[in-house]
């Protein structure tokens, strides 16, 4: 089983109500579990953009920083709830690995936004990715999609 950001599988669940659909996902023969941590944390779609303030997902888990919307609302609790629910799904379904949307405050794998809402990136994971990796799960970004499938013998090209 593969855990995947629902927006990558075509679900319109991004903060702006759109998706980040990767058409190759439809060709996968492996079972997929689609998740949107923000929706699992009871945030609406669409929703105001949110960013981790001066830190990474690990810092949020360690309660060293917060996730704040562009309008100034603290949505840390909802992001933590969503991340915990994704972790529970990963454990329940014996996930092989996950493929998540890069740069997201939930799903970022190598980078997330810096909290200034200026488009500047910092090296570090989003909160859900950090929680999964702390618990032994492997997470690839959407930018590593083909490599992840080749590495796990799910495609031959």
Describe the protein:
With 157 residues, this protein is of the alpha/beta class. The chain has a domain at 2-50 and 77-109 and 125-151. Helices cover 26% and strands 17% of the residues. The protein contains five helices and eight strands. The strands form three sheets. A four-stranded parallel beta sheet has the order 2-1-5-8. Strands 3-4 form a two-stranded antiparallel ribbon. It has a two-stranded antiparallel ribbon with strand order 6-7. A hairpin with a 7-residue loop joins strand 6 (111-113) and strand 7. The radius of gyration is 15 Å and the shape is globular. The mean pLDDT is 92.
Protein topology:
Layout: E1 2-5, E2 32-35, H1 37-40, E3 50-52, H2 57-61, E4 67-69, H3 76-92, E5 97-100, E6 111-113, E7 121-123, H4 127-134, E8 139-141, H5 145-151
Parallel strand pairs: 1-2, 1-5, 5-8
Antiparallel strand pairs: 3-4, 6-7
Helix pairs in contact: 3-4
Rounded radius of gyration (Å): 15 Å
**How helical, in percent, are the residues?**
25-40%
The span between the termini is: 21 Å
Poorly predicted runs: none
Question: How would a textbook summarize the main sheet?
Answer: 4 strands, parallel
Number of strands: 8
Beta strand %: 15-25%
**Mean pLDDT across residues:** 92
Please state the overall shape, judged from the principal axes of the Cα atoms.
Answer: globular
- Described by its quaternary structure, the protein is single chain
Q: Helical element count?
A: 5
Helix/strand/pairing class, anyone? alpha/beta
SSE order in H/E notation?
A: EEHEHEHEEEHEH
Strands in their spatial order, largest beta sheet: 2-1-5-8
């Amino acid at each position: 089983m593969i855990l995947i950001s629902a927006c990558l599988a075509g679900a319109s669940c991004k903060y702006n109500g759109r998706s980040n659909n990767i058409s190759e996902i439809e060709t996968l023969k492996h079972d997929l579990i689609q998740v949107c941590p923000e929706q699992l944390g009871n945030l609406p779609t669409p929703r105001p953009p949110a960013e981790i303030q001066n830190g990474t997902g690990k810092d949020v888990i360690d309660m060293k920083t917060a996730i704040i919307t562009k309008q100034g609302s603290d949505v840390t609790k909802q992001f933590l709830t969503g991340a915990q629910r994704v972790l529970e799904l990963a454990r329940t379904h014996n996930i092989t690995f996950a493929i998540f949307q890069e740069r997201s405050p939930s799903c970022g794998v190598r980078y997330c936004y810096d909290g200034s809402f200026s488009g500047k990136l910092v090296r570090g994971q989003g909160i859900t990715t950090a929680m999964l990796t702390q618990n032994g799960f492997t997470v690839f970004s959407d930018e590593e999609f083909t490599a992840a499938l080749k590495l796990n013998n799910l495609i031959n090209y």
